[in-house]
Specification:
The structure holds two protein chains of two kinds.
Chain A (H helix, E strand, L loop, with lengths): L1 H19 L13 H24 L3 H4 L2 H21 L9 H30 L8 H23 L1
Helix pairs in contact in A: 1-4, 2-4, 2-6, 5-6
Chain B lengths: L1 H17 L6 E4 L1 H7 L5 H8 L3 H9 L6 H11 L3 H4 E4 L5 E2 L1
Antiparallel strand pairs in B: 1-2, 2-3
Classes of the chains: A mainly alpha, B mainly alpha.
Chain lengths: ~160, ~100
């Protein structure tokens, strides 16, 4: 119960920051440089991989004990950070055009991959390797990992 | 005759599809321009036109085709016409300026 309250409080604060910060001068100090871009995607890969491991290791607890939300929290914070910058009145372009292209390409690659992941999950459920509602965190973590990894790969490679 | 058509049309186009570099692509003199302008580093150029250094690297290597806006920004930075920096390379490596 306590963790639910803490999570709800964090989500409320993050939502509040999203609406308030872009209108203040403080948003001028926030920066979206290449390091933030790298860290954001690395956090996506780490949290996603960690989430997959936790989901398979403790499939019953991942939703019950709110590990799912806890693991996703750093990623959420980074995405909200970039959303605040995107909404800010003082912003320049958030990403350059190559970053935008690579993120679009990564999304285009992740979409067919998500179908493969669903097929794999279906097979796992059929073979009773997984049971219960754990398919949702596994799906979210897998796609997150794949999307972040392909964004970084495309950005470095192309 | 059929084999000839098959070879000329299908196989050639399939090879072109696989080898994307053999279709018309954008070449550039970016590296030369940088060195001509006081050996400007990729980082300085990137900061001046508001992109990442990785983008400059990709443009120089011909892996990334910049938008018209970015090409114009680059041209403005070097105080040159866009055609002096970017050009088209045909599949026979023929250069069109």
């Amino acid at each position: 119960m306590r963790i639910k309250l803490i999570l709800a409080l964090i989500f409320a604060v993050v939502a509040l920051l999203y609406f308030i910060l872009p209108r203040t001068r403080f948003s001028q100090k926030l920066k979206m440089n290449i390091r933030v871009f790298y860290v954001m995607n690395l956090v996506g890969i780490i949290c996603g991989t960690f989430g997959i491991v936790v989901s398979f290791a403790w499939p019953d607890l991942v939703l019950e004990k709110h590990y799912f939300e806890l693991i996703l929290l750093p990623v959420l914070i980074f995405y909200v950070y970039s959303a605040i910058l995107g909404k800010s009145e003082y912003r320049k372009d958030l990403y350059d055009e190559k970053q935008n292209l690579n993120m679009t390409q990564a999304a285009a690659v992740t979409w067919p991959m998500s179908i493969v992941i669903v097929f794999l999950l279906f097979a796992m459920y059929k073979e009773e390797i997984l049971t219960g509602p754990v398919f949702f965190p596994v799906f979210i973590f897998s796609t997150l990992t794949f999307y972040s990894a392909s964004t970084l790969y495309l950005f470095k490679k192309n | 005759m059929l084999w000839l058509i098959f070879n000329k049309v299908i196989i050639k186009n399939f090879k072109l599809f696989l080898r994307r570099d053999s279709i018309k692509r954008l070449g550039n003199n970016l590296r030369r321009c940088r060195f001509e302008k006081d050996e400007t580093s990729q980082q300085i150029l990137a900061e001046a036109i508001g992109v990442t250094r990785q983008t400059i690297i990709s443009i120089e290597k011909g892996r990334f085709v910049p938008s018209t806006l970015l090409a114009l920004k680059i041209a403005k930075f070097f105080q040159k016409a866009v055609e002096e920096i970017f050009f088209i390379i045909d599949d026979d490596n023929q250069v069109y300026k």
